[in-house]
């Protein structure tokens, strides 16, 4: 009888995400075990307990998922997890804190598709603005689009110092080249939007980031994506199922199109499921992070 598949889900938060647990179960893992309040100093012991107890066949059917809400902490957990591996007892690891990596990968892949299809442009050398850019999804979006070659600005509604600090931190961590700035008033947003080719709205649910007046100031906007599915949506005039639908309020950019939250969410769901299946199907250990997620998302849109 084959060894059963096990997913150990490590989370520094009080509760492991039910979404991630459901996804792992539905993907086909036989046993899913959540660990909450995991500290960095506990990683080595947890991982080595998991890998040394199953033998050569069982270890291939053992997997690790790293969650939480803090990208930096999740990447530290990944580093410690990799360091705890002892060949040939090495297992696959999937990192997706707060679903940020898969959501951001789906968002950027959708925007990239419409940018190519509707405007014949690439992400490289495009001017990108990420509103809500200091949260987990915003940071991951900024990193992905920056590494793809876009001139990327992440926007904080709190302070320019906050945005610049986060941009600096993640540029060092991920080798990206984001800029950080402040945008709270309509005037701030209109200024940022005036020369943006692509816009990502990753602010918290139920907050309208770009109203019709601000959108009217966009001069070269081509594609906008919004991950907020809770009314009011992040971008005025957009619907949650839109995929490449003209942005009616972007009157200064008549070719601009939008992508709504449920259209992006459908790709995110497929993406997470596919990455989990990769872990089930591989005979060799794999490490899945935002880079792998974006590569896979490009094949889904």
Describe the structure in your own words.
With 301 residues, the protein is α/β, with parallel strands linked by helices. It has two domains: 6-95, 3-Layer(aba) Sandwich (Rossmann fold), CATH 3.40.50.10280; 100-264, NAD(P)-binding Rossmann-like Domain (Rossmann fold, 3-Layer(aba) Sandwich). The chain has eleven helices and twelve strands. β1, α1 and β2 (31-35) form a beta-alpha-beta unit. It is elongated, with a radius of gyration of 20 Å.
Quick take:
This protein has 301 residues and is of the alpha/beta class.
Draw up the topology in text.
Layout: E1 6-10, H1 18-27, E2 31-35, H2 43-52, H3 55-59, E3 62-66, H4 71-84, E4 92-95, H5 100-119, E5 127-131, H6 136-147, E6 151-156, H7 160-174, E7 179-182, H8 186-193, E8 198-201, H9 212-215, E9 223-226, E10 243-246, E11 257-259, H10 261-281, E12 287-288, H11 290-298
Parallel strand pairs: 1-2, 1-3, 3-4, 4-12, 5-6, 5-8, 6-7, 8-9, 9-11
Antiparallel strand pairs: 10-11
CATH superfamily of the largest domain: NAD(P)-binding Rossmann-like Domain
Low-pLDDT stretches = none
Helices, by number, come to: 11
Q: How are strands sequenced across the largest beta sheet?
A: 7-6-5-8-9-11-10
Q: Write down the overall mean pLDDT.
A: 95
What tags apply to this protein structure?
301 residues; alpha/beta; Rossmann fold; 2 domains; 7-stranded mixed sheet; 11 helices; 43% helix
């Amino acid at each position: 009888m084959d060894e059963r598949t096990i997913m150990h889900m490590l989370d520094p938060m009080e509760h492991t995400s039910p979404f991630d647990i459901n996804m792992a179960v539905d993907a086909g893992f036989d046993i899913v075990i959540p660990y909450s309040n995991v500290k960095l100093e506990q990683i080595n012991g947890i991982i080595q307990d998991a890998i040394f107890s199953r033998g050569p066949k069982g270890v291939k059917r053992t997997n690790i998922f790293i969650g939480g809400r803090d990208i930096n902490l999740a990447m530290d957990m990944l580093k410690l997890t990799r360091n705890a591996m002892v060949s040939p007892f090495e297992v696959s690891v999937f990192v997706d804190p707060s679903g940020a990596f898969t959501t951001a990968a789906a968002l950027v892949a959708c925007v990239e598709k419409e940018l190519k299809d509707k405007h014949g442009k690439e992400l490289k050398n495009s001017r990108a603005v990420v509103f809500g850019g200091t949260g987990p999804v915003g940071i991951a979006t900024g990193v992905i689009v920056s590494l793809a070659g876009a001139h990327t600005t992440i926007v904080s509604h709190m302070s320019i110092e906050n945005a610049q600090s986060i941009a600096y931190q993640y540029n060092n961590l991920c080798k990206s080249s984001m800029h950080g700035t402040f945008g709270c008033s309509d005037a701030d947003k209109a200024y940022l939007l005036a020369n943006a080719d692509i816009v990502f709205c990753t602010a918290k649910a139920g907050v309208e980031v770009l109203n019709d007046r601000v959108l009217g100031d966009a001069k070269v906007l081509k594609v906008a994506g919004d991950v907020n599915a809770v009314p009011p949506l992040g971008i005025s005039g957009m619907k949650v199922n839109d995929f490449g639908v003209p942005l009616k309020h972007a009157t200064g950019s008549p070719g601009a199109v939008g992508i709504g939250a449920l259209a992006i969410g459908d790709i995110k769901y497929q993406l997470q499921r596919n990455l989990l299946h990769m872990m089930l199907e591989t005979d060799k250990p794999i490490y899945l992070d935002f880079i792998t997620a974006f590569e896979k998302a490009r094949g889904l849109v």
